[in-house]
Design a protein that fits this description.
The complex is a heterodimer of chains A (301) and B (105).
Chain A lengths: L1 H55 L5 H24 L4 H26 L2 H26 L2 H7 L5 H29 L10 H11 L3 H27 L6 H21 L1 H25 L6 H4 L1
Helix pairs in contact in A: 1-2, 1-3, 1-8, 2-3, 3-4, 3-6, 4-6, 6-8, 8-9
Chain B lengths: L3 H34 L7 H30 L4 H24 L3
Classes of the chains: A mainly alpha (301), B mainly alpha (105).
């Protein structure tokens, strides 16, 4: 009897122990690094989706996309695991990995786009980022002039805030350059003037019914996504809340207007007008200040 | 970079980037030195320096944008229009900020 009742006991113990150990292992792994890795993988899928859109839109070539995708995968999983080791939760790991993946993808694509122009291209890329950051920082200083006032009273602690604004803009500018540069090249160019209504209608028809349309569609979606990723990364860097709607609306509004103006030829017309107006103004201003002529009626004649 | 306007714009942008920090540190120290070391203490000294900084930075950045717009317009680049509109908005915002600083921050 004792043998019979003892047998299952002997067999059950190691079995349940084994089962528990087998179950423990994934749980243990999940709690040490697997959670971060899964979050990183999820972020990689999102960023690789963006890269795929850019390939479909003709913004980047397939070999570059493959290299970028591999680098993104390594970066997101790495950051995900690192964030978990720091004691962060799943979504925190995911958002940090997303940010890292986007920055890596953006940096490599921008470097590739800049390098196409040689050293001059690289200079344009980096100096352009500096210029964009200067403009953005000036805009922030204009909105909050009390920061300058504080500095002029000898309190240099505002330098940190200004530095953060500048640095985040610089980083985003460096990492979005490639997409924007390639998008500019992508836009179908209008030749001739859109003064005739028939020409205009035909032009609109052409824009929406050829192979250009599909490509343009994908590149527009990827540019909008890049904008959203950029503002997401920036607000995270600044420690602010991210407003998806605001970011979506600003991206969605500007692009279609730009494309519509460009494809229908109105772009050229408006730019020509601006050029004429500004040239006229500068010519007359110069004359006015040098005292050669009186402003403005005499010079017009 | 064959475009001369773009080159001027980029260099001015980089100078602006240096001036954002260099200029701010300079006015902070200048305000301190004027008051403590040289004993010059006009009322509104800080505001004046702050306005001077904002105007100088504004001029550098505006000129940079101006040359960028010119370069874009020459190449019939669509973003020239947006930048042009943005520059006009920026001029008004700059004026408002200077006015605000002049009235005491």
């Amino acid at each position: 009897m004792g043998e019979v009742s003892g047998r299952p006991m002997i067999h059950l113990l190691p079995l349940s122990y084994l089962a528990r150990q087998n179950w423990d292992t994934p749980v243990q792994q999940w709690n040490t690094w697997l959670k971060g890795a899964v979050a990183g993988l999820l972020a990689a899928i999102v960023v690789i989706g963006l890269i795929a859109l850019a390939v479909l839109g003709g913004l980047i070539t397939l070999p570059v996309a493959v290299i970028v995708a591999i680098l993104v995968l390594v970066a997101t999983i790495g950051v995900g695991i690192w964030q978990q080791i720091q004691g962060k939760g799943f979504w925190e790991c995911f958002s940090s990995a997303l940010m890292a993946g986007f920055l890596v993808a953006g940096f490599v694509i921008s470097f590739w786009a800049a390098w196409a122009g040689g050293w001059a291209g690289i200079a344009k890329w980096l100096l352009g980022a500096l210029r964009n950051s200067s403009i953005a920082t000036l805009f922030n200083l204009i909105i909050k002039p009390e920061m300058i006032h504080q500095a002029s009273r000898g309190d240099l602690s505002v330098l940190q805030e200004i530095g953060l604004i500048f640095a985040s803009n610089l980083l985003i500018s460096i990492c979005t350059f490639g997409f924007m540069e390639r998008f500019g090249v992508q836009l179908p160019e209008f030749k001739g003037k859109a003064v005739n209504l028939n020409v205009l209608i035909n032009r609109i028809k052409w824009t929406f019914s050829t192979s250009v349309t599909t490509k343009l569609f994908y590149s527009v979606i990827s540019i909008i996504s890049v904008n959203i990723f950029g503002s997401y990364t920036q607000s995270k860097m600044m420690g602010e809340d991210f407003d998806l709607w605001e970011s979506l609306i600003t991206s969605v509004f500007i692009l279609p207007i730009a494309i519509a103006l460009d494809t229908t030829g109105w772009n050229k017309w408006i730019l020509d007008s601006i050029n004429t107006v500004s040239e006229w103004t500068i010519k007359n201003l110069h004359k006015y200040f040098s005292g050669g002529d009186k402003w403005p009626t005499k010079t017009k004649r | 970079m064959a475009d001369k306007d773009e080159k001027i714009s980029l260099i001015l942008g980089a100078i602006g980037a240096i001036w954002i920090f260099g200029g701010l540190i300079l006015i902070a120290f200048l305000a301190r030195w004027l008051r403590t070391a040289w004993g010059i203490a006009y009322p509104g000294l800080e505001e004046g320096l702050a306005v001077l900084y904002l105007i100088s930075l504004g001029i550098i950045v505006m000129t940079s944008i101006y040359f960028q717009v010119r370069s874009y317009i020459k190449r019939s680049n669509i973003f020239g229009i947006f930048l042009f509109i943005f520059q006009i908005i920026l001029v008004f915002a700059l004026g408002r900020a200077i006015w605000q600083l002049l009235r005491g921050g």
